[in-house]
């Protein structure tokens, strides 16, 4: 579906239509429909949506978190407390009708910029994501994330690397 102008990512609000969202990953589709607003209300995470009109065609969620030293790459845990403070990219998905148009990369870039902004206000050492599958893992590795030494589906992008990517 390409009707309507694509809008920059904004925080999820009541007027956004999430019911038609279908990425092809049932766990992600169910999460945006049934849990994103509840997580917003409870403070568990913040969801940002990419829309055409009010129809959500992509989203990601961010939450505060931490990662223990034993799950962290060596270059992250040096001179860091245990656990290391991180921001978790909890979900990222693009509607199947919009896949292949670079929207996943655009959403990830927006998330990285928001993490960088948050890190200027609070202590954050990295951005962390749990890849859903090997395809998602390849997407994050191509973007510069490093696999955890213990769990290759846990991927980490250090603030130092984020700042280099965005020129901060």
Brief synopsis:
The protein has 168 residues and is α+β, with helices and mostly antiparallel strands.
3D structure, described in words:
The structure is a single chain. With 168 residues, this protein is an alpha+beta fold. The chain has one domain: Gcn5-related N-acetyltransferase (GNAT) (Aminopeptidase). 32% of the residues lie in helices and 27% in strands. It has helices at residues 26-34, 36-42, 74-77, 103-119, 134-142, 159-166; strands at residues 10-11, 46-52, 55-67, 84-94, 126-130, 146-147, 154-158. It has a 7-stranded mixed β-sheet, sandwiched between helices. A hairpin with a 2-residue loop joins strand 2 and strand 3. The protein is globular, with a radius of gyration of 16 Å.
Order of SSEs: EHHEEHEHEHEEH
CATH superfamily: Gcn5-related N-acetyltransferase (GNAT)
Indicate how many domains the architecture comprises: 1
Number of strands: 7
Q: What is the CA-based Rg, rounded?
A: 16 Å
Binned, the helix content reads 25-40%
For this structure, the quaternary state is: single chain
Question: What class do helices, strands and sheet pairing give?
Answer: alpha+beta
Report the CATH architecture.
Answer: 3-Layer(aba) Sandwich
- Overall pLDDT, averaged? 94
């Amino acid at each position: 579906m390409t009707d309507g102008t694509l809008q920059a990512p904004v925080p999820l609000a009541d007027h956004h239509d999430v019911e038609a969202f279908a990425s092809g990953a049932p766990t992600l589709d169910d999460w945006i429909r049934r849990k994103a607003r509840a997580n917003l209300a409870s403070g568990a995470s913040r969801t940002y949506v990419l829309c055409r009109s009010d129809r959500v065609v992509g989203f990601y969620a961010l939450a505060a978190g931490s990662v223990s030293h034993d799950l962290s790459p060596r270059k992250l845990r040096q001179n860091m407390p245990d656990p290391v403070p991180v921001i978790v990219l909890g979900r990222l998905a693009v509607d199947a009708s919009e896949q292949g148009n670079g929207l996943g990369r655009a959403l990830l870039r927006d998330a990285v910029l928001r993490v960088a902004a948050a890190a200027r206000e609070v202590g954050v050492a990295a951005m962390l994501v749990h890849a859903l599958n090997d395809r998602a893992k390849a997407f994050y590795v191509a973007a510069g994330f490093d696999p955890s030494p213990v769990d290759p589906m846990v991927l980490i992008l250090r603030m130092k690397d984020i700042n280099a990517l965005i020129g901060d």
